[in-house]
Write a structure and sequence with these properties.
Elements: E1 5-6, H1 16-27, H2 44-60, E2 67-72, H3 75-87, E3 93-98, H4 101-110, E4 115-121, E5 143-146, E6 148-149, E7 154-155, E8 166-169, E9 186-190, E10 201-206, H5 223-228, H6 238-254, H7 256-277, E11 281-283, E12 294-299, H8 305-314, E13 317-318, E14 329-332, H9 339-356
Parallel strand pairs: 1-13, 3-4, 3-5, 5-8, 8-9
Antiparallel strand pairs: 2-10, 6-7, 9-10, 11-12, 12-14
Length: about 350
């Protein structure tokens, strides 16, 4: 384990063995005496990487037949535009659940294509909860949700049952817990939280859901283009895809998504238990909606901020400063973060309470 306890909200912590394999491949990939980032993306060596990455996604998430796996570029931010282009009909409308900054940005992009209905929002309480018991319009072309909200520390614990196509941005919690892919017409996720370095975005697309908008979609934004081109319509981000493949293989080798889901729950329980029982701290997210990926909290006494900051930095902890929009602290506990790192943070919090409580 690294000497530094890496709670970065993204780019994410990665397994040490993955970093070692990736660094070796940058120097000499597959004993070709060529770097991974020098070889042709059309070579059999890289095509094998792409094929394996796609197969691992299908295996780890139990993706049913009739879905295509894509590794594209542009991050979820481009995905916000891909969604209405590929799923909103001309003259149609779309439904969005607004649970934070990224959900708001997705909603904004869709407004350029037609009517957008904000079926529910938690903005009234600074996005500290997940809305519930809302009506989904059956005449909308799709419902869009953001399953985990990194900035505000909330997460969907139950996926809404929808009679219209369901689309989800899962950038910050994909592969962290089991998911029923068959509920969704499309899932998209930037790699830089649980899969690999920034640079590629995973799309899981129900093939039969495409081609129904009646609009002229620009070639690069047409998901059908990339399905036909097998994620190689243009030069793919080879390094990010390769590291994602290694990370997915690491996940498979250790027990898969059910294995990591249990560990992620242990990590979250450990930290939230300390937040709830330590009088020096207050959690900012509604308890039933707390994210297992991003725990957000503040000090009860802000005048002690400098003292707490000195302590966690001295303990080799990195990346827990809260997002600039909300302040406080945010501990991101992605898949590769060991429970020992969470314990290190908890130990500092306990010591802080003894010293200043």
């Amino acid at each position: 384990m690294s000497k530094v306890h890496n709670f970065s909200a993204g780019p994410c912590i990665l397994p040490q063995e993955v970093l070692k394999q990736a660094s070796d491949a940058v120097i000499n990939f597959n004993n070709l005496n060529l770097s991974l980032i020098e070889i042709s993306h059309r070579s059999k060596d890289f095509i094998a990487v792409m094929d394996k990455a796609q197969a691992l996604v299908k295996e780890l998430l139990n993706v049913p037949d009739g879905y295509s796996i894509l590794f594209l570029q542009g991050g979820a931010s481009l995905g916000f535009l891909e969604v209405p282009y590929n799923y909103m009909k001309i003259g149609g409308k779309a439904a969005y659940v607004n649970t934070g900054v990224w959900a708001s940005k997705a909603l904004k992009e869709a407004k350029g294509f037609g009517e957008v209905i904000e079926v529910a929002s938690s903005k009234d309480k600074n996005f500290n909860y997940i809305p519930k018991n809302y009506q989904i319009p059956i005449d909308a072309d799709y419902l869009h949700i953001t399953t985990n909200n990194t900035i505000f520390g909330t997460q969907f614990k139950n996926i809404p049952i929808s009679r219209i196509p369901l689309i989800a941005d899962m950038s910050s919690d994909i592969f962290s817990k089991q998911v029923n892919v068959s509920q969704f017409d499309m899932i998209y996720a930037g790699a830089q939280k649980n899969m690999g370095p920034a640079g590629t975005t995973l799309y899981i697309v129900k093939d039969s859901s495409l081609g129904k908008t009646g609009r002229n979609i620009p070639t690069m934004l047409d998901l059908a283009t990339h399905i036909k081109g097998e994620s190689m319509f243009n030069t793919p981000p080879v390094f990010s895809i390769y590291v994602s493949m290694l990370t997915l293989q690491w996940l498979k080798d250790n027990g898969g998504v059910s294995w990591i889901e249990g560990i992620n729950q242990q990590k979250a329980d450990l930290l939230y238990n300390e937040i709830d029982n330590n009088p020096m701290f207050v959690g900012t997210a509604n308890k039933v909606d707390r994210s297992n990926m991003n725990s957000t909290f503040i000090l009860n006494n802000e005048s002690l901020k400098d003292e707490f900051d000195k302590m966690w930095k001295a303990a080799g902890i990195s990346g827990i400063v809260g997002h600039r929009d909300v302040g406080g602290y945010r501990a991101s506990m992605y898949n590769a973060l060991p429970i020992e790192s969470v314990q290190a943070l908890v130990d500092v919090m306990k010591e802080f309470a003894v010293k200043f409580g």
